[in-house]
Amino acid sequence: MPESSFEGISNIYVYSAMPSSRQYSQSTIPLHPFRHYSGTAEFCTEENTSECMMYISQELLALGLSSIFFDLNGIRELDVIPALNSMYGLLQLHRRAVGMVAELEVEQLRVSSDLHCQQLSSSKLKDQLELSKKENVRLCERERQLEANIKALHNCLKNEKEEVQKLQNVIASRATQYNHNLKKKEREFSKLKERLNQLLTDKKDQKHGMDVLNYVGRSDGKRSQWKTGKADARHESEMYKALLNEFDKHQRELMTENAELKKVLQQIKQEMVGILSPKKPSGGTLKEEKRTDFTDQQITSDEEENSCMEGMSCDHAREQLSNSIRLQWRKLKHHVENLDNKVICFPASLVQLGQENSEEMISKEVHQEEMERLKVEIQQCKDFINTQQQLLQLSTPWDEETAAVLTDCYMLEEKERLKEEWRTFEEQKTNFEMERRTFTEAAIRLGHERKMFEEDRATWLKHQFLNMTFTDQVNIKTQNALTEYAVQEQKHISSPKTPL
Amino acid sequence: MNFSEVFKLSNQLCKISPDGKYLANCVQYRLVVRDVNTLQILQLYTCLDQVAHMEWSSDSLFILCAMYKRGLVQVWSLEQPDWHCKIDEGSIGLVSSRWSPDGRHILNTTEFHLRITVWSLCNKSVSYIKYPKACQKGMDFSADGRYVALAERRDCKDHISVFVCDDWHLLRHFEAETQDLAGVEWSPNGCVLAAWDSCLEYKMLLYSLDGRLLSTYSAYEWSLGIKSVAWSPSSQFLAIGSYDEKVRILNHITWKKLVEFEHQATITNSKAVVFKEVEKRPVVPTEDLSIHQIAMGSSLFDTRSKYEIPPLPVQVPVVKPDPDRANPKIGISAVAFSADNRYLATKNDCMPQCVWVWDMRTMGPAAVLEQTAPVRCFAWEPRRARLAFCTGNTKLYLWSPAGCLSVEVAVEGGFQVQSLFWHCSGDSLVLLGKDQLCLCYMATKEEK
């Protein structure tokens, strides 16, 4: 193809590939778009008509139209009728394509609007879902609360039922008790009625009285006195005296108990004060202040208490004493807590603080180390002493006396121990002997009883078999067998038994 | 521990004289008086009928024998065997008879509790007390013998009368605030009178000697109430055992509950030592093993028993009572203080095989003794803290803070110990069987 026409074709392609939807949305399809077909002038010129014709026919063939422009004789001439038909076909195609495009556009609009609708509805549904989920959770919560309520009410009901049951049991037991008492009373009443009847019908009235040989004197030897008003007054006064004595005794006991308790409290307070006030002067200013605090308080309270302590207990002194004790106790508690904290948390710092505090507060670790060391020393000393003893024993010259003395004094303990053991052993032996004796006696008695029993049994068996009706031979045979057996048994029993 | 020989006994009537020198026991219609140490018969008296009740007078000179069926009371003198005294109540009948504390008056309660007749042995005077109440413990003498408190029932109300025993003068008469008064008891110091209601209502009233109401105590309502009451020897405590299986201790200063002792079925308190009696069957000698062994019973070898200390927690056997019966077998039926005030022994009816010992200093259980059979009777020694008890078998059991001991009553023919009581010196025990009696002399050294 000539280059110019090729360029022209590419231009056409370029132009025809442009989206022309805007253009084709118009109802009329201009057959002569001035812009586009401006290329026709460039496409086909006078020089390249045949090439254009060839090209167009090829294109038409590709589209499926009858595209024969020219004769088959090789002379390319334009055939008007097929050309017009092709043009018509092209126009139809074009129209159809435009229609399809329009349809597609409508379709696309519809779809996009549908999509938009769907999106809206989906977002709406999502919101609804959220709402209903929340609602669900709320309802679940409510259900749970109601169930808990139900459980609690069930429990209440159970408790109430149990109480009712208990009360019913109580009522039942009371009812049985009442019935029992009632029956007793009824029985007594009926007995009374019987006795009354008997007395009414019975003519003989047995006189009741006392028949005594002679009257005895009173146990305290005094004579009995007349009953007069004085006697009554005396009784009253004696009774009141007894009561008053009891009250006095009681009050005295309580007073002594009170005094003792007060003394004890005082002692405790003083001891607490003593503990809290340090012995070393280098204890630090804080402690000194505390001590003066205590002593001040102590002085003032003591004075007051001493003034009131004798005899009566005045409320003021009591309160003072108990308050001061509480105060001391609190301080002591604080002090002990502080000590504990210091010891646990700051052992190093204590060591650093130097000699001032090291004497007062020995840290736990140092203390333990000391203890360990001392224990080891003690052990070493003990070992040393033992070895010394042994060496002494071995090394001293062995004359009889010293040897005897030495052995005695080292063996004395063991001898004593042995003696003890012998003693217990002897005791046990005698106990065993006694037990053995009782056992033998019991066994002998048992043997006797058994012998008696067996004899009885043998005679009984004999009698039984003798009384039964059998043939003579059988009788004799069985008799023989039995007597043999019985004799054997007796022999067996009468043989002496060995004691346990 | 030595056991004396066995003597015959009827009606479980055996008493030691208050001075501790004589032992009197009844056999059918005879009264036998022996010397406590030699057990030789000193006197023998014959009564007119079978004796129902026998009692020594307080000065140990006279013995009272009451025959309820015949309505007769005969009094015998130890110094003068020829002296006789017979009191005939006649047609009015006799239900109970007792001495007054001075040993010269006899109080007879007629049938149906119509009246109490006070007969004097010193003069011809006779006194009558009307409207006595028939209840668990309607009459109590104070410890010094000066006063007697009597429960009365007039116009459907309970009253309490206090008489002076000297001349039976009515000292005080007041109405008791109870529904149905069940009993009265003086405190050991004689200044406070405890009065309690029947089991239908839990109510304990405390009156002073001059009739003033000191305090009322009620632990709970409606359920069955008080079953047993005991004063401590120092009058410091009042122990109340009730049907709810608890013992409540009141103190004498405020008359409020000091502590409550609960008898639990499972014991977990480590301070309480549980002693469990374990019986050992005798071992059969292996040499004579033959068919004849089956015939051998265990009559020759008695079952030995010893005490074991099981590890805590311990389950105690409980017997459930019949709920439909009156006076159910549940609750604390027996309460007793030891002589030194330190211990309290109790028995719970639904654990009939156990005796509980409580320590009053620590206010907690000191020991629980579990036996193989229901405990029938327990008694504290009059001087020391030692408890003797029996379960109806042939053994005697002793508890002391040092430990527990079971002793076989070594008499011929077996002796079932039904009840027991101590001699006033604490050196010997009197064991009563069904129709036998036996003395047990304690060794001087305590055995463990």
Structural class of chain B: mainly beta
Task: Give the helix proportion of chain A (percent range).
Answer: over 70%
- Give the class of chain A from helix and strand content and strand pairing: mainly alpha
The total count of strands of chain A amounts to: 1
* Mean pLDDT across residues of chain B: 89
**What's the shape of chain B?**
globular
Low-confidence stretches of chain A: 8-37, 280-296
H/I helix tally of chain B: 0
Give a quick account of the main beta sheet of chain A: strands, pairing sense, barrel closure: none
Query: Which regions of chain B are unreliable across 5 or more consecutive residues at pLDDT < 50?
Result: 288-301
Oligomer: heterodimer
Mean pLDDT reading of chain A: 77
Rg of chain B (CA only): 24 Å
Largest interface here, residues on each chain? A-B, 58 and 62 residues
Sheet of most strands of chain B: 6 strands, mixed
Q: What is the 3D form of chain A?
A: elongated
Q: DSSP strand (E) fraction of chain B?
A: over 45%
Separation of termini of chain A? 147 Å
What percent strand of chain A?
A: under 5%
How many strands in all of chain B? 41
